[in-house]
Structures are given as structure tokens and as C-alpha cells.
Amino acid sequence: MGKWRYGVILDAGSSGTRVHIYRWLNSDTARTSASEAQLHSLPAIETDKKWTKKIHPGISSFGEHPHDVGREHLDKLLSHALKYVPLEEVPNTPLFLLATAGMRILPPVQRNSVLKEVCDFARKTTKFQLPDCDLHVQVIPGETEGLYGWIAANYLLGGFDSPKDHDHGKNHHTYGFLDMGGASAQIAFAPNVTEAEKHADDLTLLRLRSVDGLPLEHQVFVTTWLGFGVNQARERYVKALLEASPGAKEYPDPCIPSGAKIFVSANGKVIEGKKDKKAHQVVGTGDFKECLRRTYPLLEKEKECLDTPCLINGQHTPAIDFDVNHFVGVSEYYHTTHEIFKMAHKDDDDYDFKSYQTAVDKFCGQKWKNIVEGVDDNKFGKKIDEETALEVCFKSSWLINVLHDGIGVPRVGLEDLNSANNVTKAETGKSKKGYLNPFQAVNKINDVEVSWTLGKMVLYASSEIPTLSTEALAVGFGSNIAGIPDDFQYPGGKYTPYSSDDWHDHLFSENPRRIPGFFIFVIILFIFGFMLCGRERRKSARRGLSHIFRGGRGHRSSSLGRRRGFAGKIFGRRNTPTYERVLEEGEPSNGFELGSYSDASDNDHSDSSDGSRVGRTSGWGATGTSTPSLFDPGQDIIAQGANLGMSHAPPAGFTNSIERGGLMSRTDSRERLARSRASSPRRKSPMALFSE
Predict the structure, then answer these.
(1) Which of 47, 307, 533, 586 has its CA 20 to 30 A from that of 235?
(2) Is 577 buried (19+), middle (13-18) or exposed (0-12) by CB count in 10 A?
(3) Which of 46, 89, 145, 195 is the catalytic position?
């Protein structure tokens, strides 16, 4: 194993899948070069914008035809990963596909079929580590997604490594995490000491490990609100709008700009294109204050709270002490506050409720035709289109209601805050205020995207660090009890030694469907070799096969029997007489050579290196920067013998047959492509996340 360890995570969301690549120093190297502060820190994870790529749609769209998910979807993402993970490190690199909201709503049969195809395709076409498909390829619950996000936020802010620099008062030094997507919303935070003791059974125990092998433990509360993402909240809102005035010709909506018209179905979804008979017309009135009033009931705060206290939808949440709990919000929290409004036109401003509501009210009070003209003139930014402008008023009202009436975040700009005990030094970008306020919307911290996938990889890298004691408990998370609870989740599968000598022991063990393909491959090689070996050797081969199938009864059987032997039946030589021929000088008397195999066909999927740019998904790329070999065969890694190719490449003319046989020629071809990177632009060194 080399200096660097790599990890690949596929974030399979409802609208698309994004591949993330991370790397970190292996434990021995990290300990050798680390300062005293770095030894007591978590592993330093690096990434780069080029290492990220997203494609559409999500894997949940393959529920009715799961066999296409590999060829039509995963192939592009795995190809991108193989461009940046050094070839010799691929067998050492864990691969995860973790699906979220979109896959959660699929019927169980379809969901399981898609996940199985994902694992089979990845194992068949790459040598990435996939020791346990149930662990590496799965649909994660919203609570797990929220916990990973909490890890990522605190990792980037320094809440784990430098608690003295993040003293929020009352011996509290971590940050809360808020995430809102289209279907659900999550919250994760560490309650103060009093609340943690009172609600200990509701907390998740998280175990990490620093570079020096010492354990780090945190008690975190995590919950998810299904149906409280912006898209599903909007659908619930429209359904309520229709039910309030059944049979109306038009439905006035204060949450879209005045003059805008849309058509919706009975379940609240927008209908694009031509109006149909079942569509309902919604007309905007552009009254943001009324929009706030109409969206408030969607919080469902009137639901019975069976385990007090509760915040939204009757779901229990320990009381939040905003004197010490400072939250960062990602996804829609950031996009809704920054894409159009940019927080009073300064991207690095802290969230200020008064300024934000004033900006939203001004925008939503405009006529729709004026907003469209502003979009065309890039008045709100080049990335803003009409759909974004049409949706932002509802999203803003929903975000304000969730933040302040749902979660209880103080309204900065209107309400006084007690922060006398707060000595936080963390800063974001150019902001001089840092994270002193109860809420801050972020997209990146120190130029690194705050993504739950980073939290997952921090957990995994931490689990690889050797312990200082044989009695040390494993890294992972589970119920807040001593020891290893029954629901404890480990970050990854168990390592097993990898050796190129044991491929024959595993060739079919993980994927029995390869067996027919293997025998087809052998038959093709036999036929091709037989045709090349010359007339005299074909005759000798037929005699030998005929002798074998007759049970070795000598040479007295008739020529008819020889002509009807196994080889004769295959090659159609039933009526051809045999002749003796003297070999000419210089003619080889045995053996043959296979033609060279060309992998040029894989270049048809050449891919750009635009990283996470949406929609640019042309597949394989043959450019990049070559990486020196750092492979150490003595290191324990995953046995991926099932993914090793044959030692001799097939002839050029049989590429399609090989692929149909399910062999690993695609794998070898792709990973050979990773060697030819000399012509690509030089890679920028990713930013190290070690604290200086």
C-alpha cells in the first residue's frame, strides 16, 4: 500500500447520483509526519472539485428495469473515479453507494433489485473493495444522513480537533447541523449537559479515533422529518389550496409572484406543457406576508407530542440551548438564502432574519413579467432561471417557518441574543463574525463542500487507525449504551488479503453468472486457435480428440469414425479425406499466438474532467496525470479475485463476445486507460485539511 489511502462514495439522491473521491495519508505515514496537534486530530481528508461528478436521473428511476442501472448510469461514475484513483491503489480503495430519499420510496422488491445490480456491476467491472454489499451498497435512513452531515460540519469547523478554540460556553464546543432537501429535513446536534442526561436514551453514541489512536466519543441527537423537504411541503400546500375551494376555476396563490400562472394536478404536482382536463390553474398574487401565514400550518405543530418536548410534527427533540448550540444549514438552507438574495448582496454575510425577510418581501412583491425580464438580463445571477425565480417565494416562507417557528432559532436582527459566554474563533471565508449567531447557511467551509459524504469518509478513515490498546472499542455509531450495542454500525467491511495468485479461488464465488461466460470464452479461444494452427495440426488435433472420445482404443477404428468425431462435427469436416503432409522448413510444429487485444472501443465513452458540472456525462476519459506506483502487496486489502482478468488478452475481433460473457475485459480496459494520462492537464494538489 502506498502513501495515500483513497475512498469513493456515490451519493445516490432522488434527482441524480454524485461520485465523491477522497484521500488521506495512511496511518504510518500520518504518524511519522504529524505535528503534536495533528496527532491528536482526526485524519486529514483531501478532495478536489475535479474529483466530483454528478449525473441525472437518480438510480431510483431504474426501479422497473434494474439491469440497465450499471450500463446506463454507474458506468460513467465509476469511469470518472478510475481516472483519479491511481491504478495500483484501486484494489485498496473502498467503494460505497449510499442512497437517500429517492430510493426510500421505491417498493422493496424494486429497491433490492437495483441495489443488487449496483453491487454486481461494480464487482464485475472494477476491482474496488466491496467486501460486504449490504454495508457498502445500501439505502441509508435520514437519521444516518444527518449524523454524517454533523460529522462533516464539525470536522471542517474544527469542533473535534480544537475544542478550546470553539468554547461556546457550558463546556460545549460542537456545532449543530441542519439539512433540507426536496423530500425530508434533518437536524443533528449535541444537547447541553443537562438535556443530554435527561434524554440519554434518545441520543446516538458516536465513536471516532484520532491519528494517535486515542478514542473520541460524542453523544448526538439526530432526527429526520419526512415530508418536510421543500418539494413535498409545496405539494402539501397546493393540495390544501385546492381542497379549500373545490371546483374553482382559478386558485389564487400568494406564494408565487403576481401574474404568474401554473397548472397543477390534484396531488399538488406542477403539470408541465399543455393543460389537461384534470389540471387546476393556480394564479399568483405575490403577497409574501400572506404566504408566511398560509405555510405555517404545514409545520403540524398541533400534533400530539407523546414524548416531550417536541418541535415539528409531534416528533420528540430535546430542548435546544441556543446560547451554546450554533447551527450550520446546508442544501436548501443555503440555496434559498443565497441564490437570488445573496444575504443582502454579500455572499459571506451571516444570516440576519430582518434583512433576509425584507429582501424576500421586495422580490416577491414584483410583477412576474418584471421578474422574467430580470432573469433574462441576469439581474439575479447567471445561474437563476425562471423555475428558480418562481419557486423561491414559497421556499423562503417555508424555510423561515421551519427555522424560527418550527426549530425555534432566534430571529437575528429582531431578538437580542445572549452570547456573553461565547468565545468561538471559527470563521467562514472572509467573514469576521464567524459562527457567533445561532444559525448560519453555508455551502463550503474553507473551500470544501459541506457534504454528508465527507462525514462518512471521516468515519471510515478514522476506523483504519490502529488502536493503542487491544481493549479499545470499534469506531462507528449506535445506541447510547456502554460497549457495542446490537444496532452498532461499522464504517466498512472487513479487510481480507488481496493476492493476484488466488484469482482461481474466487473467480465464480461472488458472481455465479460468470460461469457461462467463462466457458464461452474458452470455446472462442479454442476455435480461433484451431483455425490458426495450420492444416496439419488441425488434422492431428482431430485425431487426438477422436482418440480421446473413443476411450483410447488404438488406431484401428475406421476413417468414418474419425470423420464423425467430436472435432469433425464442430468444424464440418465429415467428408474430407485426410492426407499426410511433410512440414516445410521453418514452419512451427506446435503452438500459436493470439492477436493483440485493442481496448480502443472504451474510448468511445471519453469523459470530460468538469467534475461536478451537472449533465456533462459522456463517460470514459483517457486523460489524466499518471501516478507512480505505491502498491505494497504485503498490505491487507480486499480479496477481489473475482474481478481479475485472464492472463492472456483475447483477440481483437472478439471484444463483444467477451463482454457478453461477463468477463473482466472491460475492467482491464478501463484500468489500462488510467495509465494513459500524460497528455492531460496537470492535477492541482488538493488542499490539505490539517490544522496549521
Answers:
(1) 307
(2) exposed
(3) 145
Specify if 568 maps to a domain: no
Asked if residue 185 belongs to a known ligand binding site, the reply is yes
Question: If you write DSSP's letter for every residue of 141-169 in order, what string do you get?
Answer: PHHHHHHHHHHHHHHHHTTTT-GGGG--S
Are the C-beta atoms of residues 311 and 299 closer than 8 Å to each other? no
Q: DSSP secondary structure string, 654-674?
A: GHHHHHHTT-THHHHHHHHHT
Q: What kind and span of H or E run contains 545?
A: helix 535-549
Which backbone phi and psi does 269 adopt, to 5 degrees? -85, 145
Total domains in the chain come to 1
Helices 230-244, 386-400: inter-axial angle, 10-degree rounding: 90
**Structure confidence by residue, pLDDT tens digits, 184-226:** 999 999 999 999 999 999 999 999 999 999 999 999 999 999 8
- Tell me, letter by letter, the H, E, C secondary structure of 41-92: CCCCCECCHHHCEEECCCHHHHCCCHHHHHHHHHHHHHHHHHHHCCHHHHHH
Pairwise CA distance, residues 222 & 37, whole Å: 30
| Residue 132 exposed, middle or buried by CB count within 10 Å (0-12, 13-18, 19+) | middle
- Residue 479 has phi, psi (to 5 degrees) of -60, 150
The pLDDT of residue 509: 41
Q: Please name the residues in contact with 559: beta carbons below 8 A apart, sequence gap of 6 or more.
A: 577, 578
Task: Report pLDDT digits (tens) over 118-176.
Answer: 999 999 999 999 999 999 999 999 999 999 999 999 999 988 987 777 777 777 889 99
* pLDDT value at 535 more than 90: no
Question: Which residues lie below 8 Å from residue 565, measured CB to CB, with a gap of 6+?
Answer: 542, 545, 546, 549, 550
Q: What is the mean pLDDT of residues 59-82?
A: 97
Query: Could you identify the residue written with the cell 429526520?
Result: 224
At residue 113, the 3 state secondary structure works out as: helix
CB atoms within 10 A of CB 209: 25
Instruction: For residue 592, count other CB atoms closer than 10 A to its CB.
Output: 13
Q: Which H or E element spans position 594? A: none
Q: Report angle CA 141, 143, 149 to the nearest 5 degrees.
A: 110
Q: Is residue 498 part of a domain?
A: no
Cα gap 54→69, rounded to integer Å: 15
Q: Does a structural domain hold residue 6?
A: yes
Q: Cβ atoms within 10 A of the Cβ of 247, count?
A: 6
Q: Is 184 known as a binding-site position?
A: yes
Give domain status of residue 160, yes or no. Answer: no
Q: Are 450 and 149 in contact (CB under 8 A)?
A: yes
Q: What is the pLDDT of residues 13-68, one digit of tens each?
A: 888 999 999 999 999 999 998 999 899 999 999 999 999 999 999 999 999 999 99
Question: Which CA distances in Å does 376 have to 345, 369, 373, 389?
Answer: 19, 11, 5, 11
Is 451 annotated in a binding site? The answer is no
* 183 known ligand binder: yes
CB contact at 8 A, 671 and 33:
no
- Rounded to whole angstroms, the maximal C-alpha distance in the chain is 109
Q: What is the pTM of this model?
A: 0.70
247 is in an annotated binding site: no
Domain of residue 108, residue span: 1-140
Phi and psi torsions of 284, nearest 5°? -75, 145
Q: Which three cell numbers stand for residue 373?
A: 425580464
Q: Kindly report the CA angle at 370 between 366 and 374, in degrees rounded to 5?
A: 110
Report the CATH number at residue 136.
3.30.420.40
Residue type, 565: G
Check if 145 is active-site. Answer: yes
